[in-house]
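Work Package 4 report. The design task specified in the project plan requires that, given a folded chain encoded as structure tokens, an amino acid be chosen for each position. We show below one input record used in the internal validation round.
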């Protein structure tokens, strides 16, 4: 195992950005940058033992300053949507920026993905730690939040993402990673023929195109939302079903089965028949947002590729969207001094 550092390029300000390369004994590797604690590359072997980069992204750091699709981004303090860009903790109402419809999406428009993080490389040599202090009131959230994100690559081609944090006030802590996967390889076209299973018998329907959940957990069985058995991502995506019409395809939260606090278990698996690359997703979080990349539009990405609608899919582990405002959902609120921690792992293999 080894961690190497090289210059990645410059931000629009002229500030230089380094990229951290973690490679395992088989030659698989990941790369990440301190700007936004962003995951830039995940390169794993296909059935011919040729490395494929399976995440969408950019070659130029300045493109990550815009990054309207959140490619590879660490999202915080809150992933997904908060209705009306407001919430109440301890009887006090907090207001966030409105950046999608009437809501706040991914804590933006200036969330963790637009911040510079400090970097530590542990002696073990197979991980990199990004950390920062989010000041009280940053983006409207209460409390000084000391947070870290650790990327680790193991010899069995597992990418582990571990989050930790503490706040000096009660606050929201619901971090996620917004990588877009294409198991054919980035820039290799649509993911609609890739096979997916999500271990979730329920999902949270949304009210309308604003994509705020109604508050119920509905059964997936008998609907196009059902991924409890493997099926192609695109098989049902265009069906005449209100939930799919609201969001232009799959962009929904799934309440995963067998959840228990602190328990890491398999929540999803995806597979490319073209490359043989499979990805198994494990997490200790209760939910996952499956997004089929519906709104990607003419994005100039890595290696001269242009990404378009459904050229990548996301599996963003989380609590339910708008959970801070919805009784009955899993709470994203941590108490002052309470340690927040969460782990999500993506294991890549050939089948």
């Amino acid at each position: 195992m080894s961690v190497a550092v090289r210059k990645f390029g410059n931000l629009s300000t002229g500030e230089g950005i380094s990229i951290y390369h973690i490679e395992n004994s088989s030659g698989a590797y990941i790369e990440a940058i301190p700007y936004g604690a962003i995951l830039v590359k995940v390169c794993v072997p296909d059935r011919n033992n040729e490395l494929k980069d399976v995440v969408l992204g950019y070659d130029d750091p300045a493109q990550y300053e815009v990054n309207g699709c959140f490619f590879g981004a660490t999202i915080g303090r809150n992933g997904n949507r908060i209705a009306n860009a407001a919430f109440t903790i301890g009887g006090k109402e907090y207001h966030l920026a409105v950046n999608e419809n009437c809501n706040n999406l991914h804590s933006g428009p200036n969330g963790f993905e637009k911040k510079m993080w400090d970097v530590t490389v542990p002696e073990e040599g197979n991980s990199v730690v990004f950390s920062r202090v989010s000041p009280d009131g940053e983006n409207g959230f209460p409390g000084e939040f000391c947070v870290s994100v650790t990327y680790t690559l193991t010899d069995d081609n597992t990418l582990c993402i571990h989050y930790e944090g503490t706040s000096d006030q009660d606050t929201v802590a619901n971090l996620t990673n917004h990588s877009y996967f294409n198991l054919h390889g980035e820039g290799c076209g649509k993911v609609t023929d890739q096979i997916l299973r999500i271990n979730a018998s329920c999902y949270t329907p949304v009210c309308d195109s604003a994509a705020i959940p109604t508050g119920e957990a509905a059964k997936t069985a008998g609907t196009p939302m059902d991924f409890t058995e493997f099926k192609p991502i695109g098989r049902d995506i265009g069906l005449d079903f209100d939930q799919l019409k609201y969001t232009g395809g799959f962009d929904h939260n799934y309440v995963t089965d067998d959840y228990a606090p602190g328990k890491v278990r398999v929540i999803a698996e995806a597979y490319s028949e073209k490359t043989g690359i499979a990805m198994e997703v494990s997490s200790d979080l209760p939910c996952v947002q499956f997004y089929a990349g519906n709104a990607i539009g003419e994005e100039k990405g890595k290696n001269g590729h242009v990404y378009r609608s459904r050229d990548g899919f996301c599996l963003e582990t989380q609590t339910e969207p708008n959970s801070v405002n919805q009784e009955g959902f899993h709470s994203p609120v941590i108490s002052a001094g309470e340690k927040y921690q969460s782990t999500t792992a993506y294991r890549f293999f050939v089948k």
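The mean pLDDT is 97. Validation will be extended to a larger panel in the next phase.
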